Amino acid sequence: MSDNIKKRKVVIVDDHPLVIEGFKNVLKDHLDFQIVGQFRKAEDFQNFMATEVVDIILLDITLPDGNGIHICREVKQANPEIIVLGISNLSERSIVKQMLQNGANGYLLKTADSNDILYCLQAAIDGEIVLSQEIRELFDMADLRKPEDIPELTKREKQILQLLAEGKKSLEIAESLFISPLTVKTHRATLLQKFQTGSLVILINKAKEYGLL
Amino acid sequence: MSDNIKKRKVVIVDDHPLVIEGFKNVLKDHLDFQIVGQFRKAEDFQNFMATEVVDIILLDITLPDGNGIHICREVKQANPEIIVLGISNLSERSIVKQMLQNGANGYLLKTADSNDILYCLQAAIDGEIVLSQEIRELFDMADLRKPEDIPELTKREKQILQLLAEGKKSLEIAESLFISPLTVKTHRATLLQKFQTGSLVILINKAKEYGLL
DNA sequence: TTAAAAATACTCCCTACGGAGTATTGTAAT
DNA sequence: ATTACAATACTCCGTAGGGAGTATTTTTAA
Q: How far apart (Å, rounded) are the C-alpha atoms in residues A185 and A188?
């Protein structure tokens, strides 16, 4: 099975101990892989990476103190040869896309089973971009790796978006930010325009999809 | 540690194989527990339960073909002595409450670590209602076990709620359901009333919180 | 320091939404 | 058969939302 004498050094970054345990269980009987680190926080992981050499990183998207997408980019910039596989419960297109655009070698859902995981690891080593089955279905023949246009928002816009997502009316927002309701209206209009929709609900849905909320 | 000769029979119901692996890893070295079943689908679990006897059920809330809350109620109605612990990523109050109201002996977040899990299992066996740390923080001194009034919706209302959550306007909904926009308006008004709010966004937020979407 | 971007605030206009109430028809369960 | 609820559809009214455009001040970056 292995064409290498050395084991691949694997680190797991996930804030769910159960998931870490799960990966350990899946990998522990396989001679090709050796888990050399497990981290629940981005910071711990980054400290580790400052001094250690690894081959494969299993990286959760949602971490208590950071964002898997950014971490992925940093790792890949410093060490493009390291294989980074995103792992997450989230099967949203934009997130998967962002991971891949930031250099990830693949993306696994936590619903993947042992075989799936081992297959994806091997395929990633072989240079493929691996997506677990469900993710692949999400995309059909969609233009992967072409950036989804996530609108850039100003500080104020993000603030107002947040309040809108809480169900606040323009007047309430105006009061809590000490500005004119008409200004709120302007910001809201800009948000709708940037998200290319005429519906508050769609605006908020998209914002959530893009990880802005 | 154990005051029993027989091992407690544990089953795990979770659609994430990694989580199952994690629990197996946590429990496998403990003489008190024995995993006698693991299921990714509610149906498989229910077939198993029809013929087997178990002591403890670790039950995910979100399953591909069912709802942990309902399953919990069924199990507890048939066998009140079985210990049911909810496990989930979701730390929303209403969901935890619903589990407990339906007889669950506790609720663990998947972020719980091995010690946390073992402690909670033991405490549940000792007759306590166990909540993992983060969940307990959510509640403070809140009136647990008093039902949160989750509105009962009719078929049509659920249908329209769904479309509203997708950002559809009343007119679009009317067209796709072949009814008058005024009827849609009536249903929307009923929804807002049942959720006790005047904001579509809040309506949708609550619906999501209650697991209706 | 000067140009660009952000935040502020307004106009006008029209439509969609939200509150309150009434009414008819259909469809369950008792 | 009859009571209850669901689903349908309407009226009237007022406000909030949304489209399009203009304009001033403040902040930030080149």
A: 5
In chain A, CATH 1.10.10.10 covers: 155-209
Instruction: From B87, B80, B81, select the one nearest B117 (Cα to Cα).
Output: B87
Q: Which CATH class is domain A155-209?
A: mainly alpha
Residue given tokens 């209706």 in the structure block: B212
Which one of B12, B14, B18 makes the best mutation probe of the A interface by having the most chain A beta carbons within 10 Å? B18
pLDDT tens digits for range B98-125: 777 777 888 888 777 777 788 788 878 8
pLDDT at A205: 86
What is the phi/psi pair of residue A171, to 5°?
A: -65, -45
The count of other CB atoms within 10 Å of the CB of residue B77 is: 10
Q: 0.70 cut: is pTM over it?
A: no
A15, amino acid identity: D
Q: What is the CATH number of domain A8-139?
A: 3.40.50.2300
**B179 CA from C25 C1′ (Å):** 14
The predicted-structure confidence for A128-169, as pLDDT tens digits, reads as follows: 677 766 666 555 434 343 445 678 889 999 899 989 998 999
List of chain B residues whose C-beta atoms are within 8 Å of the C-beta of residue A169: 199
